[in-house]
Write a structure and sequence with these properties.
Blueprint (H helix, E strand, L loop, with lengths): L19 E14 L2 E8 L2 E7 L4 H9 L5 E10 L14 E12 L16 H6 L1 H4 L3 H23 L3 E2 L17 E3 L7 E3 L5 H9 L4 E10 L10 E11 L3 H19 L4 E2 L5 E3 H8 L12 E3 L1 H4 L11 E7 L7 H13 L6 E5 L5 E2 L8 H11 L6 E7 L1 H19 L6 E2 L1 E5 L4 E3 L6 E3 L10 H7 L9 E6 L2 E8 L4 H10 L4 H7 L1 H7 L6 E4 L3 H9 L29 H6 L13
Parallel strand pairs: 3-5, 6-9, 11-18, 12-19
Antiparallel strand pairs: 1-2, 1-4, 2-3, 4-5, 7-8, 9-10, 10-24, 13-14, 14-17, 15-16, 15-17, 19-22, 20-21, 22-23, 23-24
Helix pairs in contact: 4-6, 4-16, 5-15, 7-11, 9-11, 12-13
């Protein structure tokens, strides 16, 4: 018999009854019922119940005192459970193993939190002992889901004619919109490598080199703050690039892959297909966001013209967005108060509202300020029927979008206009090529700087930069941005002009992107790509609210590895070797 096991803990069935087995795993749980010891033994594959009778004195004594989560090897015989003791929730629930011998392979100290229950331990503690946290069923399931998703992605991309390739980790800095992680060079004093924020330039160079269809499960590194849907430090994406394509060619490939993945692992949840295409400006107007949650079946409406020059000064000469919520006749005043409180949490000063009565008249706090003409124009703009509640946001466009976008989803959830157990995808298209920095007033890239402007060089030379659209696109699912992509700018003249508008001199472009420029001067094909986030895909499939729950060893919200103790200090000799000296900020005053 094998030194450690003849079977795994998850594979025993009634057909194994009467057989001798050897199992290895962790002591998951223990119960002593009238001297008979029942234990759950767990390994990667599942859980099986062990039974130790009092007459097995040495085995009984050892397993009675051994701490949970100790690793053991047991020998025994498979027996059928009595009908009254069958556990239908376990695949092994028809059988148990009567233990005849045991060997302790690794005794466990007192564990810092319970493994066999979600006991509310704080995240910092969980990350400090992540190797224990990963023994929990939910975390183990999430990590295995991630593995299966990546395997399926690789198979699907290969079947569509893509080739998996690796790109460098040590490279040059890139203007991807976040801070780089820098690596000092020992051989080149005062110079630094940058960990890639994305393999952007290299995958484009692979297209110039003639490889046509590339993909990679790529590690990416960005020195940015954590969010629920963003892990600080590093993340993984499905990096994709294709030659001789237009936007719709990329869409076809990614829609097929995404639909397949979410149908395969979505546990029966419906997947929208084909994915609707929503222009960026339309998305901001209707949903208040460029990553709309389409499960909320309500839309915002611009009613600024209704109140332009109105006597209602709170709305006059402002951008005003309205949200009509039908079928609210049975909602109490408490509903409206709660929606107001929610809006305040999003940054609003309050939330104006009215309700359409059976007679078509408006009631509510601001109804008395609206003229008959205002009411008529408003009802026409919203197509609001009796029983409809209307919420308003007024102010600057971006501020109103942020607040009313959140109100839209919350109101839908509270009133039955929100669809659960679905994956609603969409493409956000026609992003602006440039935007103006609110603080400096300078024009800068709004998205990916390597995108092709719609209209090419002519558009850059003849249009207001803020009016130029790019062949850029995002894929969004249930309000989560999964990916950004673009048809690339592969023409040097267009590249110089676009970067010039964003404040880069010709010398800047040649210095920072010399490799790309040289490549484009030797017959570059039209090409485009995208990079869906692996972590976010798994987060949606696992129905987890925080992305760190889908990563085996994530950093915490402060970008610290509590398990390994990173980031660490470096001794002076190592700093000298790297030609570095430290200038630490002053310690905070007590």
């Amino acid at each position: 018999m094998h030194r450690y096991r003849s079977h795994t803990c998850g594979e025993l069935r009634s057909t194994d009854v009467g057989g001798d087995v050897r199992l290895s795993g962790w002591l998951h749980n223990r119960r002593n019922l009238g001297g008979i010891l029942f234990l759950d033994l767990r390994d990667h594959y599942g859980i099986v119940q062990l039974v130790v009778r009092p007459e097995q004195t040495a085995v009984h004594e050892l397993l009675s005192g051994l701490s949970k989560e100790s690793t053991v090897r047991v020998d025994g015989k498979v027996v059928a459970r009595g009908a009254e003791n069958v556990n239908a929730e376990l695949p092994t629930g028809d059988v148990e193993v009567e233990v005849t011998d045991v060997e302790v392979l690794g005794a466990a100290d007192q564990i810092p939190f319970t493994i066999n229950a979600e006991d509310g331990v704080n995240e910092e503690r969980r990350l400090e002992y992540r190797f224990l946290d990963l023994r929990r069923e939910r975390m183990h399931r999430n990590v295995m889901l991630r593995s299966a998703v990546i395997s399926s992605i690789r198979r699907r991309m290969t079947e569509q004619g893509f080739n998996e390739m690796a790109t460098p980790i040590l490279s040059a800095t890139s203007p991807e919109g976040a801070r780089d992680f820098l690596v000092p060079s020992r051989l080149h004093a005062g110079r630094f490598y940058a960990l890639p924020q994305a393999p952007q330039q290299f995958k484009q160079l692979l297209m110039v080199a003639g490889f046509d269809r590339y993909f990679q499960i790529a590690p990416c590194f960005r020195d940015e703050d954590a969010r629920a849907d963003r892990s600080p430090g590093e993340f993984y994406q499905l990096d994709v690039e294709m030659s001789f394509v237009e936007q719709e060619d990329v869409f076809r490939v990614i829609e097929a892959m995404m639909t397949g993945i979410f149908e395969e692992f979505g546990e029966g949840r419906h997947v929208t297909s084909p994915f609707p295409r929503i222009p960026f400006r339309e998305s901001m107007l209707k949903y208040g966001s460029d990553k709309p949650d389409l499960r909320a079946e309500l839309e915002l409406v611009d009613v600024s013209q209704v109140f332009a020059g109105s006597g209602f000064k709170a709305f006059a000469d402002k951008h005003v967005r309205a949200l009509a919520v039908p079928d609210t006749a049975d909602q109490s005043r408490k509903f409206f108060d709660q929606m107001g409180e929610f809006a305040v949490e999003q940054g609003a000063k309050g939330l104006a509202w009215v309700r359409v009565g059976d007679d078509g008249q408006l009631t509510g706090p601001i109804a008395k300020f609206l003229t008959e003409a205002d009411v008529a124009a408003l009802l026409a703009a919203l197509d609001a029927k009796p029983g409809t509640a209307v919420f308003f946001g007024a102010g600057e466009f971006d501020e109103v979008s942020k607040i009313m976008g959140a109100v839209r989803v919350e109101a839908a959830r509270r009133t039955g206009h929100f669809v659960e157990n679905v994956f609603r995808f969409c493409w956000i298209v026609d992003f602006p090529m440039f935007e103006k920095d609110e603080e400096t007033g300078k024009v800068e890239f709004s998205h990916n700087p390597f995108s092709m402007p719609q209209g090419g060089l002519e558009a850059l030379e003849t249009q207001d930069p803020l009016d130029v659209l790019a062949w850029q696109y995002d894929i969004v699912c249930n309000g989560v941005e999964l990916s950004s992509g673009a048809i690339r700018n592969h023409e040097p003249d267009v590249m110089f002009k676009a970067f010039g508008i964003a404040g880069y001199s010709r010398e800047d472009v040649e210095r920072e992107f010399g490799g790309m420029l040289r490549a484009f001067q030797f017959g570059a094909p039209p090409h485009g790509g995208i990079a869906p986030g692996i972590d976010r895909i798994v987060m949606l499939l696992a129905d987890e609210p925080n992305i760190r729950e889908t990563i085996a060893f994530p950093l915490n919200g402060n970008a610290q590895d509590l398990l390994m103790g990173a980031p660490t200090e470096v001794d002076e000799s190592r700093l000298r070797e790297l030609h570095l000296s430290l200038r630490k900020p002053p310690a905070p005053k007590a």
